[in-house]
Amino acid sequence: MPAKTFAHKKQQLYLVLSGIFIVNALLAEIIGVKIFSVDKLMGLPGNLTAGVIIWPVVFITTDIINEYFGRAGVLRISFLTVGLILYAFLVILATTELPPAQFWLDVNRTDSQGRPFDIDFAYHSIFRQGLGIIIGSLVAFVIGQVLDASIFQWFRRVAGGRYIWLRATGSTLVSQLVDSVVVLFVAFYVFGNWTLNQVLAVANTNYWYKFAAAILLTPVLYLAHYLIDRYLGQDESEVLQQQAQADVSV
């Protein structure tokens, strides 16, 4: 493959993977304010933050980026995502300060069952996350991504580039254990009013969900690997993976 074509495909691949990573990380941060009952949904004990529903997409994308673009590629997009998340929170904060239009309040003054309803208060409650939640989310995100990227490459070196499932699953299980505890501890224990037992209980449920998701998504990792190898070409794919292992690809 001509060098120019390979460079273009490499750029396009990183762009697509980065887009998937950013949009899911941002959505997970925004919707993570909701805690839902696993018991009511699936008859299983525990509660989960809504953000964990799409976090598996984030860490599977992290592993794919690490596979082809190395630790540097993961950290570059991770730090960019932190900046974008901060920007999103600032924009949301600014919108909550805008004075509501009276007709908007009037036409939404009751819910579907005729009960009094304050839509501006609801908007604040849903979108205006506390400073503790924002700090906790970002601290956990950065720590988790640095751990994931580093452990992934460690497993890669130990296994000599074999066993994709080992480096992908192993790095995810370690990094998400830390992430699950840190985000809740900072957001709801340090800055909130949760007890340590509540933090550990929700973190435990979140982690085992992520654990199961990491195992179940292993075939997706292999499918993505296969499709990317076909897109790049086998020889070019091997070159990119070698560069990623040496951490010189981006």
TrEMBL record:
InterPro entries, per this entry? YhhQ
GO: which molecular function terms? transmembrane transporter activity
Q: Which Pfam families match?
A: Vut_1
**Key word Phosphoprotein present:** no
Subcellular location(s): the record lists: Cell membrane
Report the transmembrane regions from the record.
Answer: 12-36, 48-65, 77-96, 131-152, 164-191, 211-228
Q: Which domain of life is it from?
A: Bacteria
Q: What are its GO cellular component terms?
A: plasma membrane
Keywords, A to Z, come to: Cell membrane, Membrane, Transmembrane, Transmembrane helix, Transport
Q: How does it sit in the membrane?
A: Multi-pass membrane protein
- Which family does the record claim for this protein? Belongs to the vitamin uptake transporter (VUT/ECF) (TC 2.A.88) family. Q precursor transporter subfamily.
Q: Tell me, in a sentence or two, what this protein's role is.
A: Involved in the import of queuosine (Q) precursors, required for Q precursor salvage.
Q: What is this protein called?
A: Probable queuosine precursor transporter
